[in-house]
């Protein structure tokens, strides 16, 4: 320490400073260390912290907005909010702290905090107890969900058929996956308001028109089909602007992955593998790939059955490059059928589909 030639204006003692440290700034820079440390705290801790938590989703209110904090319990919330409320002295260095929460009751957590740091070159330790009061409420998002609010409807329908159970389940899963991705990015306006399984298909009520558009197009991309939209005027907002509700109709093709169809082009039936973007499949007579457009240009095809209807039967003999003999799974008679390229000639058994159009050997592995 070296004397600076200055005297503390509060206590009158001469001021000593470490020679390596510059004189501090600020209105009280002339105080000696003892008076300065007596006048200022290392950390400004609030007398009390109040937190409002949504009873449905666990979001907390910060000012006029709600935020998802991902806390596992109210103690985590109390620690985070106490940390956010602390004010550290501007001249403090190497500040660290730890906290020991005490659960007083269901809505009160007492935070026992210990702080350490360096202020004006002097190590300082302080302790503070901050009570955190937890209040419960309902956030705007959960309030809208409880009230059944929605701005768009996605209707999943099939051409000349009702969407299958798997298609309806997948459509709902896609909607919830899109919502989860938006929530992960901080979007609290995205939610599924209602799911209705109707005789004609599936209806999804969604919170925003943007979400409805995104979900509808994702369903059409994955399950095939087309999307059309229509608007309905529902009300006017406080400024007199018209508010519309948008319906997105997803029309699925008349067939689905795993179905064996006959497009009627003379080249034999097709095992449908995918309807994403276009219809892709495999000719079950030759094993060659097949591709066709969807939507209005989709081929008119007859359904012969599904891959799940296939039965294992004995491969009796390979006659030549184009024909094999298999046992009819119903009559157990040897039948000569087309040999597709994917058939393993060394196999003991093969899956076959018997339909009104004939008997066909299917691939060992069906659509994914």
Description of the structure:
This protein has five helices and 25 strands. The protein folds into three domains: 2-137, no CATH class; 148-252; 259-361, no CATH class. It is elongated. It is an alpha+beta fold. It has helices at 33-39, 74-85, 140-146, 165-184, 209-223, and strands at 2-7, 14-17, 43-44, 49-54, 60-62, 65-67, 87-88, 92-105, 108-119, 122-137, 152-158, 192-198, 201-206, 226-236, 242-252, 259-262, 270-274, 279-283, 289-292, 302-306, 311-318, 323-327, 334-338, 349-355, 358-361. Mean pLDDT is 84; it is low at 19-23.
Secondary-structure map:
Layout: E1 2-7, E2 14-17, H1 33-39, E3 43-44, E4 49-54, E5 60-62, E6 65-67, H2 74-85, E7 87-88, E8 92-105, E9 108-119, E10 122-137, H3 140-146, E11 152-158, H4 165-184, E12 192-198, E13 201-206, H5 209-223, E14 226-236, E15 242-252, E16 259-262, E17 270-274, E18 279-283, E19 289-292, E20 302-306, E21 311-318, E22 323-327, E23 334-338, E24 349-355, E25 358-361
Parallel strand pairs: 4-10, 11-15
Antiparallel strand pairs: 1-2, 3-7, 5-6, 8-9, 9-10, 11-13, 12-13, 14-15, 16-17, 16-20, 17-18, 18-19, 21-22, 21-24, 22-23, 24-25
